Amino acid sequence: MSNNIYELSIFKGIERDVVEEIVNNCSHKNFSKGVNIINEGDESNGEGYIILSGRVGISINKSFIAELSQGDIFGEIALLNEEKRTATVKSLSNLEVIVLRFDDIINMINGGSSKINKEIIRRIEENIGDL
Question: What is the CATH number of the domain that holds 97?
Answer without folding.
Answer: 2.60.120.10
